[in-house]
Amino acid sequence: DVKVTQSSRYLVKRTGEKVFLECVQDMDHENMFWYRQDPGLGLRLIYFSYDVKMKEKGDIPEGYSVSREKKERFSLILESASTNQTSMYLCASSFRRLAGVRNEQFFGPGTRLTVL
Amino acid sequence: AQSVTQPDIHITVSEGASLELRCNYSYGATPYLFWYVQSPGQGLQLLLKYFSGDTLVQGIKGFEAEFKRSQSSFNLRKPSVHWSDAAEYFCAVVLDQTGANNLFFGTGTRLTVIP
């Protein structure tokens, strides 16, 4: 089974702290994604990466950065956490090429981040 | 602009009743469409997907969805709902069909199942 794991299920941080959210996948997927999920807004793409050391901005990249030093690991960084970044963060991964079942994204369990 | 619309924010059904969750998309080319389910406190799980071919697709947990190009819809159905189906359901479409497989999600429909 494909497995996407996230370093924490729940996280509480203070305003101004630097926050690292880690995601690891074990299926050799090229693509990895970070979303945030808010009530009434669904999932919104923050950043994605289609290869090691490559990154692309999604719909809401402001206030976030990412790092992908290894294929299996994709980190989301909040340089200076703010209260409006309180949210559920979901990581996902997928194969890059279009080929039937390879299109689907596999999701981790999510990290609920609270910024006080 | 490409978008996915789930017009129902919250639906309540009785256990054993049938279910239909609506999804409409706006996309110029043939879309790749997905339904995901999120149980409380969990990540998203793929229920089913449509790429091409037969417009009625079967998924896990007894769900099915029908792609109707004329209506730009991909509604999710289940003939008899179980209490364990209570969850949030997301429709999604792939926007970039050349590589990154970026998904664009609807805002979700929360399903409540009453005994």
Please tell me about this protein's structure.
The complex is a heterodimer of chains A (116) and B (115). Chain A is mostly beta strands. Helix content of chain A is 0%, strand content 51%. In chain A, strand 7 and strand 8 form a beta hairpin. Chain B is mostly beta strands and 115 residues long. Helix content of chain B is 0%, strand content 51%. Chain B contains no helices and 12 strands. Chain B has strands at residues 3-5, 10-14, 19-21, 24-26, 32-38, 44-50, 56-58, 64-68, 73-78, 87-94, 103-105, 109-114. In chain B, strands 2, 5, 6, 10, 11 and 12 form a 6-stranded mixed β-sheet that branches. Chain B has a 4-stranded antiparallel β-sheet with strand order 3-9-8-7, with no helix packed on it. A two-stranded antiparallel ribbon of chain B has the order 1-4. In chain B, a hairpin with a 5-residue loop joins strand 7 and strand 8. Chain B is globular, with a radius of gyration of 14 Å. Chain B starts with a strand and ends with a strand. The model of chain B has no long low-confidence stretch (mean pLDDT 89). The interface between A and B is medium-sized, with 29 and 25 residues.
* Ends distance of chain B: 41 Å
The quaternary state of the protein chains shown equals: heterodimer
How would you state the average pLDDT of chain B, rounded?
Answer: 89
Please indicate the percent range of residues of chain A in DSSP E strands (runs of 2 or more): over 45%
Helicity of chain A, as a percent range: under 10%
Strand content of chain B is: over 45%
Element-level helix/strand string of chain A: EEEEEEEEEEE
SSE topology string of chain B: EEEEEEEEEEEE
Chain pair sharing the greatest interface: A-B, 29 and 25 residues
Outline the low-pLDDT stretches of chain A: none
Q: What is the rounded Rg of chain B?
A: 14 Å
Largest sheet of chain A: 7 strands, mixed
Question: Any idea what the shape of chain A is?
Answer: globular
Measure the end-to-end span of chain A.
37 Å
Structural class of chain A: mainly beta
Number of beta-strand segments of chain A: 11
